[in-house]
């Protein structure tokens, strides 16, 4: 195996925050538009993170965190 003098990082291969959270584990997180249509579901480490994920996804309604 050859040793490389430099480490190259491909920005296209970097994991997004949501992907890291799902790897780490957490609790169900879901966001809903005001008309009760689902906007986003995923896994979050806390209720605050769930709320931030909903805002980042552009959801403008309510959010649920926990076992549902």
Name its key features:
single chain; about 70 residues; alpha+beta; three-stranded antiparallel sheet; 2 helices; elongated
Description:
The protein has one domain. The protein has a 3-stranded antiparallel β-sheet with strand order 2-1-3. Strand 1 and strand 2 (38-44) form a beta hairpin. The relative contact order is 0.22. The chain has helices at residues 17-24, 47-56; strands spanning 27-32, 38-44, 63-65. The mean pLDDT is 76. The radius of gyration is 17 Å and the shape is elongated. The protein contains 2 helices and 3 strands, in the order H-E-E-H-E. With 68 residues, it is an alpha+beta fold. Helix content is 26%, strand content 24%.
Helicity level, as a percent range?
25-40%
Please state roughly what percent of the residues sit in beta strands, choosing from under 5%, 5-15%, 15-25%, 25-35%, 35-45% or over 45%.
15-25%
Number of domains: 1
Overall radius of gyration: 17 Å
Instruction: Count the DSSP helices.
Output: 2
State the end-to-end distance: 49 Å
Mean pLDDT: 76
- Let me know the largest β-sheet: 3 strands, antiparallel
Looking across the biggest beta sheet, what order are the strands in? 2-1-3
What form results from the Cα inertia axes? elongated
Query: How would you spell out the order of helices and strands?
Result: HEEHE
SSE topology sketch:
Blueprint: H1 17-24, E1 27-32, E2 38-44, H2 47-56, E3 63-65
């Amino acid at each position: 195996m050859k040793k490389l003098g430099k480490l190259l990082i491909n920005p296209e291969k970097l994991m997004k925050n949501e992907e890291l959270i799902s790897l780490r584990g957490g609790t169900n997180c879901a966001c809903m538009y005001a008309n009760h249509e689902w906007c986003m579901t995923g896994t979050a480490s806390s209720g605050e993170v769930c709320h931030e994920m909903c805002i980042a996804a552009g959801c403008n309604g309510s959010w649920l965190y926990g076992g549902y």
